[in-house]
Amino acid sequence: MPTIDKATFEDLKQISGADFINELIDAFLEDAPKMIGEMETALATRNVESFRRNAHSLKSNANTFGATELAGLAKELEMMARESNLEIGNRLEVLKETFLNVAKELEEMRT
Amino acid sequence: MTSKQEPGHLLVVDDNKVNRILLSRGLEGHGHKVETAENGRQALEKLRANPFDLVLLDIEMPEMDGYQVLETCLQDPDLRNIPIIMTSSLDEIDSVVKCVELGAEDYLNKPVNPILLRARVNASLEKKRLRDVQRKLLHTFATKEVADELLKTGFSLGGKYVEASILFADIRSYTTYAEKEDPGEIIDLLNDYFALMFDAIVDYHGTVNQMAGDGFMAIFGAPISRDDHCEQAVRAALEMMELVDGFNLEQAARNKAQIKIGIGIASGNMIAGYTGTQHRATYTCVGDTVNLASRIQNHTKEAQHPILIDQYTKEGLSTTIETEALGSVIFRGKQQPINIFAVKRK
After folding, report:
1. What is the interface pTM, i.e. ipTM, of the complex?
2. DSSP output for B83-130
3. Cβ contact, residue pair A60, B91, below 8 Å
4. pTM, whole model, 2 decimals?
């Protein structure tokens, strides 16, 4: 199952211009691992606000690229953090796994 | 809407790099000049350093979030005219509503739709251009403070009570070395004189609202209320005297007419508002205080002091300004004697 929604991705190309899609992919592949890292740290230190903010940013970026599943996972975690609930089970591991698939697919979508 | 949009200077504020690249590249593609900021603090630094036509502002940011930036901008007279479009994800609709209620121009959902982005940015820039033209027009016929007040509160002819100081100034006499006064020279003299006097008034936050012949009236403490209106009015008067001295020196050097002026100031409660019609109106104050200021100004010649003030004004002064009590005077049309004070020049 493809992890990137093609229509959204085409829109993205249109708005940024085809020339800049690689720059965008670079930025995402550079920033998203940092966000996930911050979420792990926040989880360990029980920093609900930092966890929520990073989940929010990751969700926002995932939506931008049409990575619907990743966005859904990030949103769920954002919502839990918003209610100060950090009992997230294995959701962060699932999210990481999903991100790696997204990253692989985005690498192939460079122009 | 115009099909050919002039490029604008835009600021994109987002803590997220992907969003910053996306918005700035998209907008640059439409011909705009775009700068970016990673947080609210950085955004305000950039806004204060350079003029911008439009801001695209993220709500969720570390250091200083979108609300704080929006509120700061709206409270800053230099920044409140820059339209702000909030950018937010779909599930932040409550936050967006709050921003629009606060005074944001518009909003865009992220991921941003390219067509909507273009349309909203162009519409906002167009509106700003119209407002800029309007503001410029307004400033040409109204003083800055009146224009700002009008732009802020909207135009209404209604009046209200204010506590303010009124200053009347008049040229008491012309002295000339020339045999005969040249009418053209007198008009030049008046123009130079008014330019100097209005600078002094504006320096002390006053508003010149009436001119008649070689006299004029200025208001301190309205339309923008301020507690130190007495002090400001008297300081403006002292500044005016200084400027007249300098002016006379120049005139004498060129063998041209010199002037003596009289200034009267009275303070208190009065009715202020826009009088006139919807098409032609002026901001003015009416009431006993205004009449008194005019009478006190008339009294300067007889009293042999160029700056006279009433008791209310005297009591509003700091100790750095020295005054001399001249006793009480019964003015024409007034029942009660009025205590008059001369302001001493340094």
Report:
1. 0.87
2. -EEEEEEGGGHHHHHHHHHHT--EEEEESPPHHHHHHHHHHHHHHHHH
3. no
4. 0.57
